[in-house]
Amino acid sequence: MKQNKAGCDLKSCFLCQLCQPEWNPAIAAYRKTLSYKKGEVIFKEGDLVKGIFFVYNGIVKVHKQWGTEKELIIRFARQGDVFGHRGFGKETYYPISATALEPLTVCYIDIPFFLTTLKMNYDFIFKLMSFYAAELQESERNMRNLAHMPVKGRIVNALLRLQEKFGVTSEGFIGITLSRQDLASYAGTTYETVFRIINEFVEDNLIKLSGKDIGIVNMPKLEQLIEEQP
Amino acid sequence: MKQNKAGCDLKSCFLCQLCQPEWNPAIAAYRKTLSYKKGEVIFKEGDLVKGIFFVYNGIVKVHKQWGTEKELIIRFARQGDVFGHRGFGKETYYPISATALEPLTVCYIDIPFFLTTLKMNYDFIFKLMSFYAAELQESERNMRNLAHMPVKGRIVNALLRLQEKFGVTSEGFIGITLSRQDLASYAGTTYETVFRIINEFVEDNLIKLSGKDIGIVNMPKLEQLIEEQP
DNA sequence: CGCAATGTTGAACAAGGTCAACTGTGGTGG
DNA sequence: CCACCACAGTTGACCTTGTTCAACATTGCG
């Protein structure tokens, strides 16, 4: 498992408990700690944006619906990650939904106070901007992958991104337990296709399974699959 | 055709000629005007980031390669649009390429001066951040579309986005002339598929053609195609 | 005038999505 | 304690969509 981070994504944000553990009355009034149960929806597409969230504990999936049955998982957020920041700019409605995948504790800061903080702290807004820039790069890389990479490569890619973010347990499994459905939504494919390909990988000894958990066995071979032209 | 904008994407940027037409010696030293021919590459993936660009005139495509033969066009930039801003944050290499589609004149500002300006002007950095946020939303919407929307819908979507950005000529055609190849790359599909579907649309009287130019005839029917589940 | 690039069309093929049936598993109430 | 049900997981067969390949037409440009 990955070590806990020193602060949040926006180091020195001075807002969440991770960056500012000491009690600070000036901030405390605007900083709420909220808890959600596994599977609970924190907000959904179209909801009015009222604040921004920092994860203290647990895992959130940030996802976008397509009709009723299909979704694409844009990103997972774990301890120290920000989410809900997509509701900025002109739009005051969330363009995405957020759902707890594990029991979750977050720090919630309402927009007006957040904006005030941004205004007073150049370093902070610069970090936030850099964070957006990084997310944009990631998003556009994924766009290209969805457009041109065959499913097999997209699934490998999803696994590698998950391992990167959630690390590896002592037994060599990726540090997050996902339903196949969620893995499919993350890779931008279907349930059944994920199975077949996961199975194929197990047979080829590229990954190993333990219940729902997945462990990467042969990283180089997998990486090769990503590069592969159809 | 759309009217020219008052300033650039980042109104009040105080950098490009569009926002600051008067001669300003303090800025002039850092502001270069560059010209490119049709088809010329302004920068490509992996190039070192040295500056940021504002379009005075012409059209740029911002695209991402996949292997040698495939690309995905992320975005088009026209008068007043910024590009090259993806090279921010940790990465100092462009994650995308930029190519002129028409004879192009741009304003080029080198990074150190740009950063200095950002530092001195809260309003400016806030606008830049909002701009990133908006691009992120757009990018993630497109991600979902690429993952779940059938090709027909993606092509319609591409056409509507083009019309939104480049407006309509007096004869009712979208204000940009694209090769079928570029349209395909924008919609995330192939050449031949674009063709067949464009033909189908013409037969169904949803769009009209004049050479390579495309005009939207029946907007509601097209919009319906976007919503359509497979 | 000829060559290269771009456009046009048909046919074959394959990836992967859909559907349907079946299996295991855990929870619940009798 | 067991029978039942609901639901996630698993698998096979089929079929649609869209890509690929290949051949040919047209445009444009030196």
Automatic annotation (TrEMBL), chains A, B:
It comes from the Bacteria. GO terms for molecular function: DNA binding; DNA-binding transcription factor activity. Pfam families: cNMP_binding, HTH_Crp_2. GO terms for cellular component: cytosol. Residues 36-135 form the Cyclic nucleotide-binding domain. Keywords: DNA-binding, Transcription, Transcription regulation. Residues 149-220 form the HTH crp-type domain. The keyword Transcription applies. This is Crp/Fnr family transcriptional regulator. It comes from Deminuibacter soli.
